[in-house]
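Chain A, query sequence.
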Amino acid sequence: MHHVVILGGGYGGLRVIQRLLADKDIRSDFKITLVEREAYHSLKTEFYALAAGTVADRHLRISFPEDEKLQLVCDTVTDIDLNEKTISLQAGNSLSYDQLVIGLGCEDKHHGVPGAQEKTLSIQSMRRARKTNQVIQSIGTGGRVAIVGGGLSGVETASELRESRPDMDIRLYDRGETILSMFPEKLHKYVTEWFLENNVTIINRANITEVDWHTLYNHGEPIELDAIIWTAGVQPNKLVRKLTETHGFETDRMGRVVVNHYHQIPGFDDVFMVGDCAASDHAPSAQLAEAQGDQIAVLLRHLWHEEPFPEKMPRMKLKGVLGSLGKKHGFGLMGERKLTGRVPRVLKSGVLWMYKHHSGS
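Chain A, predicted structure.
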């Protein structure tokens, strides 16, 4: 029997499970062990809405598939030994594997800013997004909140918070000349205008030098705040960073492990990496993790059938990016087409509805 252990029940890990369980052409006997701290899959792309208080966490949970071939272990991974092929868990026990899929996701990257890790709020996990919401809702009328980081996560958090708390003074700090600098000019101009019309203050060319409780230092100047939400970059899970240090794996500029075109870690053909831990020509996204998961499931089938891998893997086709500005407006990039207004928001809602109703059990 082939035993594949999947670490992390995010978008990539869940997609591997779905494809393996649905594949009727797999002739080999196999079992899957999923190690995930929570008993459900979470819609991480929507954690900004949970933090802002516009969505309840129950709407962001999806049950994992129920199948005799799948075992769910609700625990936290404490160590990965690639040489011994074992996984250590917080509860004290360990797992061995024939094949391993690492999909542990990412964490906030604080860029060495003093106080940022300990004294800011986050949307990187459901637990932390829930805590962020609790803090936000405890702030009185007219409170002042800063979001650090003007990428997609920061923009969606700021806009959703504006919709949730119209009484608040909301400030978005970004180190670039414009927010959403990775998007075409038409889109970041549209979003900037939306923020101006909705009284969200944008501070460009910011340089956050220190964070204290309720104080943000921009270029060394203190700004008093009621809450600070950090969305200024991500890095792979700490266990993946530990593996990188131990084995000397090559990484990209984001710290993601450089894998081969079969999504394998160099030197360990039985270990695949998916999602925010694996280097890619594409920006991190749920779509990318799912596309990688699709290919890993196919490769596992080849492996179990003792068939050679394809000489060339098919190109992963990503449909684009959709962002929201509250519940009624949005922006998006679909191929070369730039979308603004209500249409991209409706499209995003439709994509989310389809995913929620066609995933899990």
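Residues 2-37+74-107+235-318 form a domain with the FAD/NAD(P)-binding domain fold (CATH 3.50.50.60). The CA atoms of residues 119 and 267 lie 39 Å apart.
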